[in-house]
Amino acid sequence: MTTQTTSPAARTPRAAAPRRKPVLLPLTRRQYVVTAICSFVGFLALWTAVTATGLVEPLFLPSPVAVVEKLVEQARNGELWSDVGVSTYRVMVGYLASSVIAIPIGLLCGSIPRVEAAIEPIMDFIRYMPVVAFVPLTILWVGTDDSQKFLIIFLGTFFQQVLMFADAVRRVPMAFRNLGATLGLSRVKILVRIVFPSALPLVWDALRISLGWAWTWLVVAELVAATEGMGYRITQAQRFLETDLIIGYVIVLGLLGLVFDQVMRGLGRQFFRYLKGRS
């Protein structure tokens, strides 16, 4: 009579299979847009409720209707469109000048260690200085015309851009550069043909983010010695306690920034469609 024996491994109970964590699926384009619209509607509803119940005096927080009526008045007399045009012009000139100069400097900082050691500490040092403190100096340097506004926007974006562009270049895998060296390319050709195109998606993201900073510094640029523009109009409205005009122009600034951001986001999707296939 034979007895069956079981091995220790057979008698050991099997370990329970680990539970798989649920994966959050990305929203579709329609779901994203609907969610964003609902958040804006909820914000407007809360704003309307606060002003309708009288919890806050209209002097401090006017109703959405009062703000819209004020913007319509500004649009009819032409001041709104004139201010939007002038401010957009100032932002784009200062921002483009900053970007054109910052891109090559950032490319060199991220690629050549000696250039990084020479330039990046200076960029880090200056970028912590408040741009507002430079307003009197910019008036002494270039006067009070549009050049001073361009310079303020330039100073508010340039130093941050250089560091962001350099970081984008550093993220390019070293294998790409080694491949260029293996093919016999010079250092300049490696930078132009391999490094910069590889870093371009991240450079574009940095350009999109820094454009928001340019719009932020616009109000500072138009605080002094300006006779038109959105920042000038906000300052004038503050003197006369026109809160509805202040909030209206702030909303217009936000809408302009949102439009420019979405345009750059859409262009980025078109320029870098090949990134969709990467996981």
Going by CATH, the architecture would be Orthogonal Bundle
Percent of residues in β-strands = under 5%
Largest sheet: none
Q: What is the arithmetic mean of pLDDT? A: 87
Helix-and-strand structural type = mainly alpha
| Termini Cα gap | 62 Å
What can be said about this structure in brief?
The protein has 279 residues and is an all-alpha fold. It is 73% helix and 0% strand. The protein has 11 helices and no strands.
How would you portray this structure in words?
With 279 residues, the protein is an all-alpha fold. It has one domain: MetI-like (MetI-like fold, Orthogonal Bundle). 73% of the residues lie in helices and 0% in strands. It has 11 helices and no strands. It starts with 7 loop residues before the first helix and ends in an 8-residue tail after the last helix. 25% of the residues are buried. The model has no long low-confidence stretch (mean pLDDT 87).
Give me the secondary-structure topology.
Elements: H1 8-11, H2 29-52, H3 64-76, H4 79-111, H5 113-127, H6 135-142, H7 146-170, H8 174-182, H9 187-221, H10 230-239, H11 243-271
Q: What are the key terms here?
A:
single chain, 279 residues, mainly alpha, MetI-like fold, 11 helices
